[in-house]
Amino acid sequence: MASQGEDGRLFLEDLSVGRRFAAGPVRVSPEEVLAYAARFDPQPFHTDPATAGHPVLGGHSASGWHTASLTMRMVTEALPLAWGVVGGGGEIAWPRPVRPGDTLRVEAEVLETGRSRSRPDRGWARLRVTTLNQRDEPVQVLVTRLIVPSRVPDSGTSC
Amino acid sequence: MASQGEDGRLFLEDLSVGRRFAAGPVRVSPEEVLAYAARFDPQPFHTDPATAGHPVLGGHSASGWHTASLTMRMVTEALPLAWGVVGGGGEIAWPRPVRPGDTLRVEAEVLETGRSRSRPDRGWARLRVTTLNQRDEPVQVLVTRLIVPSRVPDSGTSC
């Protein structure tokens, strides 16, 4: 079977375009929403459960960066890349708020892959990582480029 | 003075293109690097201080999402937007690792602003938020679009 290494670790050659991964679910603990917000995003619509009527968020919501953090946790559990889940960044969007008590899950898909031009031992994979709530509504869409090792070092023909 | 509201809160009209904000510094506590990683990004190069020789990260480093979280904390302290710092997302890049014990600060600049086409009470501002380490090297560059209230509701001429 060519889709995965013998030890379950994934290499560039395993990440065919269109391959999908699922992760989660996790519940967004109301206590953790408050703790995360107190430390990293201390704005009333994240720290105060009684918040109401915010013109953008409506009521009490989790920080978008908390959603990103929970998403990363789920991705690390679902994507056993040989060098780990290591990326240089990406594009992130939060189309709707996450509420305390929501349940989130992740759907990821490989959009594109390529080899490094300078390093024969590696390449990259662009993935769309969508975080959905319990109503299957996207709460975060991340398109990220991960650095992935190659099982077969490049001979140089694609440099 | 037109650059800020009487109570210090900022509106769309205060965010002229080129306006800059500085925030921080904060020290990246080695204990928090481990605690954040254990909860949200439990990969050995974040959870194990003895990590060495990772092909991308080199040694022990903070999760990029931890850097993003610390950046958000600094931004909330430096940018008193009238509705708070609320964004729909953006582009994020981590050009180099953050090491436990680093000291980070933020430089932000307004790149572009505009009015909402559908909501006369608000507009948006695109900001570049650069997080730098103690050697003034960028460790994160975030270009984000924030939703900002208008002091003077739009009359409709730009709809």
TrEMBL record, chains A, B:
CDD domains assigned: YdeM
InterPro entries in the record: HotDog_dom_sf (IPR029069), MaoC-like_dom (IPR002539), MCH/BMMD (IPR052342)
Gene3D superfamilies in the cross-refs: Hotdog Thioesterase
Pfam families xref list: MaoC_dehydratas (PF01575)
Positions of the MaoC-like domain: 22-117
Entry protein name: MaoC family dehydratase
Species the sequence originates in: Caldovatus aquaticus
Taxonomic path: Bacteria, Pseudomonadati, Pseudomonadota, Alphaproteobacteria, Acetobacterales
